[in-house]
Amino acid sequence: MTTSDFEHFPSALADSMKWHKYAGRDVLPMWVADMDFAAPPPVLAALRQRLDHGMMTYNVPSSSQVGCIVDHLASEYDWPIEADWLVWLPGLVPGLNIACRAVGEPDSAVFTATPIYPPFMSAPRNSGRRTVGIPLARQNGRWGWDFDRLSSTLADHPDGRLFLLCHPHNPVGRVWRDDELQALAAHMERHDLIVCSDEIHCGLLLDAGLKHRPFATLSPEIERRSITLMAPSKTYNLPGLATAFAIIPDASLRRAFRTVMQGIVPSCPNTLGMVAAEAAYRDCAEWRSGLLATLRGNRDRLEATVARLPGLKMTHVEATYLGWIDASELCNQHGIDHPQRFFEEAGVGLSPGADFGPDSHQFVRLNFGCPQATLEKALVRITTAIQRL
Fold first, then answer.
1. Mean pLDDT, to the nearest integer, of 130-138?
2. Closest C-alpha among 46, 16, 48, 51 to residue 32
């Protein structure tokens, strides 16, 4: 498939959370992380075939459904896993919350790097734990780790047993390199931490030459202390089918994870979600190639526009379809307290930076997973709003 296949926007549905937020208003929704593209044709065909059967039974993952995940991880990431390492989930966010309940003691620290996808901060609180944020550093136009601060923060909270890693990172769009992951792993081993790694954006690397490295593959010791969360929902735009999975190699850790799930998380995964996942991982490589080309073009257009606008700046987006925009100069120069509201009034609905951490209130996050025409319309509105100032 080519980029032309992603130029059409299916009409917005009334039950779309993304579009419902601004129903009846002339505001382009570019906030929550789902894309304005139809699901891949092979996925839709597989769903139609399953619907034609007529019975929506409880799902017991078939050998082909399990096998497609195992084969995908082996071929895409050179990661040989055992089928019984898989734990099926109704979404990645439940996985974060389960991990927080399964690891550590009540009121213990759970670490993460900020700015961060908001459920990383709420999951520990939901689980009776304390969220301890460790700010990423922005140097030379690039976000990265402040390992000195990481080391001191881990030492200051010796009760902590869990680190929530976002890899690739949402919202800053970094693909962590092997040397960064190895340095992080050394700290995890030194402080005896379990790492729950959200790798839901691993299929959305935009820069040529980059390859995703699952955190668990760094070493046998790291594999033993890892919970890896993945799903087809971001790459193939299937969030409403509520299907994800954890990969937990260590039997005792996997048992603790499953124990916390009992009576809360459905014991059977979503029937249609499993059908869609199998088709996505097995039959949609060509579709994904076209998607990445489209997102790459949108990313480049966004970065070029922001670079020209006074008061805005952003770092390069290596992965995801999310732009993390620093509006601090704009806010300080013009007395803008809430940049998200400023752009919303201009007709562009973005995610407020304050949701991603205590030091991010002058940032906004823009979802460029949309047809080029939609993005162009949004960029014109943003440009016009700033010019009017």
1. 98
2. 16
Residue 63 CA: distances (Å) to CA of 38, 51, 71, 178, 340: 28, 20, 12, 33, 46
Neighbouring C-alpha atoms within 13 Å toward the C-beta of 366: 33
CATH 3.40.640.10 maps onto the chain at 45-282
Contact indicator for 353, 115 with CB cutoff of 8 Å = yes
- Kindly write down the DSSP assignment for every residue of 127-189, as one continuous string: TT-EEEEEE-EEETTEEE--HHHHHHHHHH-TT--EEEEESS-TTT-----HHHHHHHHHHHH
Q: What letter does residue 10 receive in the DSSP assignment?
A: P
Model confidence at 14, pLDDT cuts 50, 70, 90, reads confident
Backbone angles phi, psi at 86, to 5 degrees: -80, 135
In whole angstroms, give the CA distance from residue 164 to residue 99. 9
Q: Which residue has the tokens 């668990």?
A: 216
Q: Which of 363, 27, 378, 383 is nearest to 171 (CA)?
A: 363
Q: Give me the architecture of the 45-282 domain, per CATH.
A: 3-Layer(aba) Sandwich (3.40)
Over range 32-56, report the average pLDDT. Answer: 97
Amino acid making up residue 67: G
- The CATH architecture assigned to 3-38+285-388 reads Alpha-Beta Complex (3.90)
